[in-house]
Design a protein that fits this description.
Layout (H helix, E strand, L loop, with lengths): L5 E7 L2 E8 L2 E5 L1 E6 L9 H6 L5 E4 H6 L3 H6 L3 H5 L5 E4 L2 H7 L1 E5 L4 E4 L6 E4 L1 H12 L3 E3 L11 H22 L6 E6 L5 H14 L3 E4 L8 H8 L12 E3 L5 H9 L4 E4 L1 H7 L2 E4 L2 E4 L19 H4 L3 H9 L3 H27 L3 H14 L1
Parallel strand pairs: 4-5, 4-14, 5-6, 6-10, 10-11, 11-12, 12-13, 13-14
Antiparallel strand pairs: 1-2, 2-3, 7-8, 8-9, 15-16
Helix pairs in contact: 6-7, 7-8, 10-14, 10-15, 11-14, 13-14, 14-15
Length: about 375
């Protein structure tokens, strides 16, 4: 019996809409999770994030274990209390950041030993320690297994080694996690862009048994078309009655195409990172507010939006803030982008429920091309 009921309300082709019911509130799917790397969604208050319609955010195990330290967060009441976010939190395992940010000493069967990118201090992250940090110290609602994510492109033998190690680590995470009433554990499918390996990974994970399943190892440089080719089959290898989470993705078009292929959950730093660099995402694609053509544009980013950042400020004002390097520009564009991603997932949920998702997808793609 899974920790959280997952109720699929409607399907349209492979696309699904439903609700993942957690102890801290419902997560409406398709869901986009803003990334709160270091116990903050960058530049925004939790009230601003909640106002966009976000049901859940993501916290980062690697960053929090290094600073301020998982034990300290625990002493201060856990991650929800620490950052004043009362809704669900999913924490990643730390594995991806260990691979991408640290000076790795070694990956062994037992654990990953690495040097902090902050001060060079040495740390050991095992499957058991990852679960302890996430579930017991941070107190996250959805815990991710520790996995090994290989760089792309990956040779088949290397990708196979990583997926098998990840599966063994997944079994150890499951044993360490045990049975919990108010927290869930997700496994992570690996296998690079090789279908046979993705299938093997899925079979191993299903045999272990998780509350949800993630598709890992994408959005690592393979490009939109290659990602879609993997998503043509990868979600279907995972149990249909549990949530499917595509990690680290992505651009709005990536979300729409992944939902069309049966994915339910997403996270990405893109909305806030774009916002900090003067880029706004709109229904016609991204625009760069640094461009001189916006200097006297008195229209808002999205007059139909409920988000004040989208509705109440002109592009001319945002252009001025960005050019003047005012902090408010980063705040408003980050807020707008998060709101836009939430509006996108809400629009997809409605389109699936009403049986018009293919038309929505076609219109969306067309608008992006002309934007």
């Amino acid at each position: 019996m899974a920790a959280f009921p997952f109720e699929i309300a409607a399907t349209d082709g492979a696309a699904r809409t439903g609700v993942l019911k957690t102890a801290r509130g419902d997560i409406r799917t398709p869901a986009f999770m803003p990334v709160g790397t270091a116990a903050t969604v960058k530049a925004l208050t939790v009230d601003q994030v909640a106002s966009t319609g976000a049901d859940i955010i993501l916290g980062n195990t690697y960053h929090l274990m290094l600073r301020p330290g998982a034990e300290r967060v625990s002493r201060l009441g856990g991650l929800h209390r620490f950052m004043r976010w009362e809704k669900p939190i999913l924490t990643d395992s730390g594995g991806f950041q260990v691979m991408s940010l640290s000076n790795i000493a070694k990956v062994t069967e037992e654990a990953v030993t690495f040097a902090s990118h902050i001060d060079g201090s040495r740390h050991v992250l095992s499957p058991e320690r990852s679960v302890e940090i996430q579930a017991d110290l941070l107190g996250s609602d959805i815990v991710m297994q520790l996995d090994e994510c290989v760089a792309w492109p990956a040779e088949e033998t290397r990708a196979a080694e990583a997926l098998r190690l990840s599966a063994r680590w997944g079994a150890r995470c499951k044993a360490a996690f045990g049975e919990r009433e108010h927290q869930a554990l997700f496994g992570i499918q690996q296998g690079s862009t090789i279908e046979a390996l993705r299938r093997e990974s899925a079979e191993r994970l299903v045999e272990i048994g998780f509350d949800g399943y993630a598709i890992g190892g994408l959005a690592v440089g393979e490009g939109h078309e290659a990602m879609c080719e993997v998503l043509d089959y990868a979600p279907g290898l995972l149990p249909a009655d549990r949530p499917r989470y595509l990690m680290g993705v992505g651009k709005p078009i990536d979300l729409v195409e992944a939902v069309a292929r049966g994915v339910d959950m997403f996270d990405c730093v893109l909305p806030t990172r774009s916002g900090r660099h003067g880029q706004a995402w709109t229904w016609n694609g991204p625009i760069n507010l640094k461009n001189a053509r916006f200097a006297e544009d008195d229209t808002p980013l999205d007059e139909t939006s409920d988000c004040p950042a989208s509705r109440d400020y002109s592009k001319a004002y945002l252009h001025h803030l960005v050019k003047a390097e005012e902090i408010l520009g980063q705040v408003l564009l980050s807020w707008h982008n998060i709101a836009h991603f939430q509006a996108l997932t809400a629009a997809m949920r409605a389109a699936i429920a009403e049986g018009r998702f293919e038309a929505f997808r076609r219109d969306f793609r067309s608008a992006q091309r002309t934007g």
